[in-house]
Amino acid sequence: MTNALFNRMTIVAAAEVVSEFNAHSDMEVLEVQWGISGRCSGSSKSARVADLARITAEEQMDVMTIHGSVPIGRALVEAAILAPPRVKSTLAWRKLVAGLRFDGYEIIEDQAESLAVNQWGGSQTETTVRLVRMLPSDLPGLDFREAESEVELLLDRHGFSVALGHLRQAVAAFSRGEWSSANGALRNFYESYLNEIAVALGYAEDGDGKAKRDYLGRLQSPFLLTDYNEWHANNQKPQYVQGLMNRMHPHGGHPGLSEEEDATFRLQISLVTARLFLRRFDRRRA
Known about the structure:
2 domains
């Protein structure tokens, strides 16, 4: 059984972040509080992190926190987001933020005046950190982990092995925090499954990816829909499929967007788009 709230990258990153600002003794206190005392190795920080992450990822249990009884995954993440500023420049923190976004959560910092006064008699600002859902939890189709599972199932069902390989490479690289590698694999994934759909629907020429996408739009019963601006014979018209292809091949970075933010966005939109087209193909082949 696996943790229902957070993916493994999030859980491992949370354990790593907690270890960055807690001594062995502090982590042992947490383990006692959470009822897992003696189950995490004390031989080294890395061993303790590995055991804590494994227990959290593989076991469903509620533990006591200041917010009451919550799933252990939630408790671990909420302990991690209290990290001091010095920890927020580490790879573990960036992986935590990216993993949480993939799980549909955002870390929010609120600032308010506290009752305490500083040494000059002025008011002090107090910062509180909380975890919030990026999107409503009760709307269907917004769970990106479910999207990943469904996309893998559909790719496997129809024998799209090349695209499936690229997707698995992308998710693995993303989980390791290798943003550039994840982005490259996602580009290959996007082009591959559209190519494989085109071939499955009768494309038999030796054209490139653009030719295959044009074929999908020009079928007698089009696969890519002009009415939805997914494809258009006139390249000057808005086209979602080509637009996303262009977005997956940017030129350089953007000063307002971090690598992990961009990688998370690409993974999310790639999964949602793939699910749409693969579901459409699956219905067509039924």
